[in-house]
C-alpha cells in the first residue's frame, strides 16, 4: 500500500483536503436553496461518499507488495482486527450524524457561520484528544494556543449569527412597514391590487420581486419561497443548537479513527498488524453510509422541521440536482481520505488544520449565496473578527505538525 511518510507530503494532503472539504457543503446548500429536499440530497451524497472510499482503498491501499507489517487493503479484510474496525465504524457514525445535522444547520445559521462554529468545536475537543492519543508528537506550546484561537472563533461565530438574524428581522420589519404606509416607490404599470397582495401576503412569504438584490428583504422573501427548509420567523436557538450538536459529533470522529489505525489501547492480538488508513477508512465509510441510509429513509416518511413528506419512489424519480449531490459526496469522500492520510504521517492533531474549510465555504457563501450583504456595521466587525481569528488559529495549528515514527 502507499504510505505518506514525509511532512511535506502530509501538508500537501491537508491542503488538497481543505479545498475539497470546503467546497462540498456549498453544493448541498445550493440544492437546498433551490428547493430540493435534504433527505433526497443526502441519500445521493452518501452513495458517492462510500464510492470514494472504495476507490481509495482499491488504488492506494493496493499499491505495492503486501507484507506482515504493512498488509494491503484486501489482506486486512480477513484479519482478526475487529477492535480497530469497531473504532473506525464508531467514527463513521459520528461523522454521519454531524454531516446530517449540518445540512439543516446551514439553512438556519448560514453556510459560513455553521462551518466556523462546527470546525472550531471539532478542534477544541478533537484536537486535544488527538494530541494525547498521538503520544504528544505535536508541539504543545504551539498547538494549544491555536486551540484557544479556535475557541474564540466559536464565540465570534455565535455573535455573527445573532447579529445577522437581527439585521434580517429589521429588514423584513421595515419592508412590511413601507408597504403599510405607502412609502414604497411603486411602478405605475403595476396595479394597486398587486401591491396590496404583496403587503397582505408578506407574512407567509409570498411577496417577491423578479430581480431581488442580495441582502435585501425582497431577496430573503424570495429565497424563503424557493428553499426546502423554511427559516424566517424561527428563533436563533434552533440553528445554534443543531450547529453545536454537529460540532460535538465532528469532534469525535477523528480521535476514533486515530485509535482505529494506531491501537493506542492495545486491543489487537499479538502479531496482528494495525489497521491501515485505507482499511480503516473503508469501514469508517461503510458505517457512515449505513447510518445515513437508515436515518434519511425514516426522514422521508417522518420528516423533521416541518419539511414535506416524501417516499422512496419520489426520491428515485427526483433527478433535479442529483448529479451535484453525487459530486458533493465524491468531494467529501476524497477530502476525508486525504485528511486521514496526512494525519497518519504528521499526527491527527495537526491534520485538524483542514478544519480551515470555513475559509473556503465563506468564499462560496459570499460568491454563490450573497451572504453578508447589506448588514449592519456591528455584524461586519464581528465577521472580520471571526475570520481573522480563524486564519490565525489554522496557521498556528499547522505549525504544530510533528512526524510519526
Automatic annotation (TrEMBL):
<feature type="transmembrane region" description="Helical">
    <location>
        <begin position="322"/>
        <end position="342"/>
    </location>
</feature>
<feature type="transmembrane region" description="Helical">
    <location>
        <begin position="108"/>
        <end position="130"/>
    </location>
</feature>
<keyword id="KW-0067">ATP-binding</keyword>
<feature type="transmembrane region" description="Helical">
    <location>
        <begin position="6"/>
        <end position="30"/>
    </location>
</feature>
<keyword id="KW-0472">Membrane</keyword>
<keyword id="KW-0813">Transport</keyword>
<dbReference type="GO" id="GO:0016020">
    <property type="term" value="C:membrane"/>
</dbReference>
<keyword id="KW-1133">Transmembrane helix</keyword>
<keyword id="KW-0547">Nucleotide-binding</keyword>
<feature type="transmembrane region" description="Helical">
    <location>
        <begin position="42"/>
        <end position="61"/>
    </location>
</feature>
<dbReference type="GO" id="GO:0005524">
    <property type="term" value="F:ATP binding"/>
</dbReference>
<dbReference type="InterPro" id="IPR030189">
    <property type="entry name" value="UPS_plant"/>
</dbReference>
<feature type="transmembrane region" description="Helical">
    <location>
        <begin position="142"/>
        <end position="161"/>
    </location>
</feature>
<feature type="transmembrane region" description="Helical">
    <location>
        <begin position="348"/>
        <end position="368"/>
    </location>
</feature>
<feature type="transmembrane region" description="Helical">
    <location>
        <begin position="81"/>
        <end position="101"/>
    </location>
</feature>
<feature type="transmembrane region" description="Helical">
    <location>
        <begin position="380"/>
        <end position="399"/>
    </location>
</feature>
<dbReference type="Pfam" id="PF07168">
    <property type="entry name" value="Ureide_permease"/>
</dbReference>
<dbReference type="GO" id="GO:0005274">
    <property type="term" value="F:allantoin:proton symporter activity"/>
</dbReference>
<keyword id="KW-0812">Transmembrane</keyword>
<dbReference type="GO" id="GO:0015505">
    <property type="term" value="F:uracil:monoatomic cation symporter activity"/>
</dbReference>
<dbReference type="InterPro" id="IPR009834">
    <property type="entry name" value="Ureide_permease"/>
</dbReference>
<feature type="transmembrane region" description="Helical">
    <location>
        <begin position="236"/>
        <end position="257"/>
    </location>
</feature>
<comment type="similarity">
    <text>Belongs to the plant ureide permease (TC 2.A.7.19) family.</text>
</comment>
<protein>
    <submittedName>
        <fullName>Ureide permease 1</fullName>
    </submittedName>
</protein>
<feature type="transmembrane region" description="Helical">
    <location>
        <begin position="277"/>
        <end position="301"/>
    </location>
</feature>
Amino acid at each position: 500500500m502507499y504510505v505518506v511518510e514525509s511532512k511535506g507530503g502530509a501538508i500537501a494532503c491537508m491542503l488538497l483536503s481543505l479545498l475539497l472539504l470546503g467546497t462540498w457543503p456549498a453544493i448541498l446548500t445550493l440544492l437546498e436553496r433551490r428547493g430540493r429536499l435534504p433527505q433526497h440530497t443526502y441519500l445521493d451524497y452518501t452513495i458517492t461518499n462510500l464510492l470514494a472510499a472504495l476507490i481509495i482503498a482499491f488504488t492506494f491501499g493496493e499499491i505495492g507488495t503486501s507484507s506482515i507489517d504493512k498488509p494491503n487493503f484486501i489482506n486486512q479484510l480477513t484479519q482478526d482486527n475487529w477492535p480497530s474496525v469497531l473504532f473506525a465504524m464508531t467514527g463513521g457514525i459520528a461523522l454521519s450524524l454531524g454531516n446530517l445535522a449540518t445540512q439543516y444547520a446551514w439553512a438556519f445559521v448560514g453556510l459560513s457561520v455553521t462551518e466556523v462554529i462546527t470546525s472550531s468545536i471539532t478542534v477544541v475537543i478533537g484536537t486535544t484528544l488527538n494530541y494525547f492519543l498521538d503520544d504528544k508528537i505535536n508541539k504543545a506550546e504551539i498547538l494549544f494556543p491555536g486551540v484557544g484561537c479556535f475557541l474564540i472563533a466559536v464565540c465570534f461565530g455565535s455573535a455573527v449569527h445573532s447579529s445577522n438574524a437581527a439585521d434580517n428581522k429589521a429588514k423584513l420589519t421595515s419592508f412590511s412597514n413601507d408597504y403599510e404606509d405607502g412609502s414604497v416607490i411603486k411602478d405605475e404599470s403595476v396595479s394597486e391590487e398587486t401591491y396590496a397582495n404583496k403587503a397582505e401576503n408578506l407574512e407567509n412569504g409570498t411577496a417577491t420581486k423578479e430581480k431581488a438584490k442580495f441582502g435585501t428583504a425582497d431577496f430573503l422573501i424570495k429565497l424563503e419561497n424557493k428553499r426546502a427548509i423554511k427559516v424566517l420567523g424561527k428563533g436563533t436557538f434552533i440553528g445554534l443548537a443543531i450547529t453545536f450538536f454537529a460540532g460535538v459529533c465532528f469532534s469525535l470522529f477523528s480521535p476514533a479513527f486515530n485509535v482505529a489505525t494506531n491501537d493506542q489501547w492495545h486491543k489487537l492480538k499479538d502479531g496482528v498488524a494495525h489497521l491501515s488508513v485505507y482499511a480503516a477508512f473503508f469501514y469508517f465509510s461503510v458505517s457512515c453510509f449505513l447510518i445515513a441510509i437508515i436515518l434519511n429513509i425514516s426522514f422521508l416518511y417522518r420528516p423533521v422541521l416541518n419539511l414535506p413528506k416524501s417516499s422512496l419512489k419520489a426520491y428515485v424519480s427526483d433527478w433535479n440536482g442529483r448529479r451535484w449531490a453525487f459530486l458533493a459526496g465524491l468531494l467529501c469522500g476524497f477530502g476525508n481520505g486525504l485528511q486521514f492520510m496526512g494525519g497518519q504521517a504528521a499526527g491527527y492533531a495537526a491534520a485538524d488544520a483542514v478544519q480551515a474549510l470555513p475559509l473556503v465555504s465563506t468564499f462560496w457563501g459570499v460568491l454563490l449565496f450573497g451572504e453578508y450583504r447589506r448588514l449592519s456595521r456591528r455584524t461586519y466587525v464581528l465577521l472580520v473578527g471571526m475570520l481573522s481569528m480563524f486564519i490565525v488559529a489554522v496557521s498556528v495549528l499547522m505549525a504544530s505538525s510533528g512526524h510519526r515514527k
